[in-house]
Amino acid sequence: MQAGLQADFEARQKELDRRTAENNYRYGVAQHDCYSTFFVNHCIGKARDRMRVVQADIRSQQLKLDDEQRAERARARDQQAALQRAQDAADAPQRAANEARNAAAFEQKQQQHALDVQQRAAEAPQRAANEQAYAQKQQQHALAEAQRAGEQSQKQRAANQAAYDQKQSDFQKKLNEARQQGAQKAQERTQKAERFQQKQSDAAKHKADVEERQKQAAAKAQQKQQQEQQQLQQQKQMQQQDQ
């Protein structure tokens, strides 16, 4: 679709949208104003008729615009299809050449593959002989390695036994040391617990002694206060008798 024609379509659609919005607004205002008149329904009917007249014209213009846009899109599609057909026709010789070249390359690959298969089939006996010779060498090498391993294994077993015995001796020594240290630490914990218990007992006894002394002091103070009150009472009685 041409740019100028597309711009014209957009401008016309924008104008139709504006007219639709304006028509709806005016109808709403007219409806509102009708409620202040005596013949409300008649007023609203006339406003609706005016709105429908404008609406019909807008609808007509919208249908015309839609038809023009559909026609333009169809013309653009036909033009694009024609261009594509022309391009395909122009590219047909090159496509044919490419297809022929690809077919020749594929045929060459197929022939090379057949030659490779024949070559591998011709070389199969020699490969089998080489593989058998290699297997024999591997077997001889394995036997020699097994013999050397057997000679070394006896020495290795003796060395492993000596190392194991030494590890066991070292482990037993460490185990004995750990047991001694554990017993010593257990004894120390017992002694600490006894000292702590003794301190707790001494503290409890000291607390009880302090509380007992405080009780005795409080009792003496209370007794002294009572005596002072009695003396004061007696003095008051004597003063009253003298009067």
Low-pLDDT windows of residues: none
Strand content: under 5%
Structural class: mainly alpha
Judging from the principal axes of the Cα atoms, what is the shape? flat
| Mean of all residue-level pLDDT scores | 91
Count every beta strand, where a strand is a DSSP E run of 2 or more residues: 0
Portion of residues within helices? over 70%
Cα-to-Cα separation, first versus last residue: 138 Å
Q: Give me the number of helical elements.
A: 2
Q: Report the sheet with the most strands, covering strand number, pairing sense and barrel closure.
A: none
N to C succession of SSEs:
HH
**What's the Cα radius of gyration?**
61 Å
Describe the structure.
- The chain has 243 residues and is mostly helical.
- The chain is 97% helix and 0% strand.
Task: From the structure above, extract its key features.
243 residues; mainly alpha; flat
Secondary structure layout plus pairing:
Elements: H1 3-34, H2 40-242
In short:
Helix content is 97%, strand content 0%.
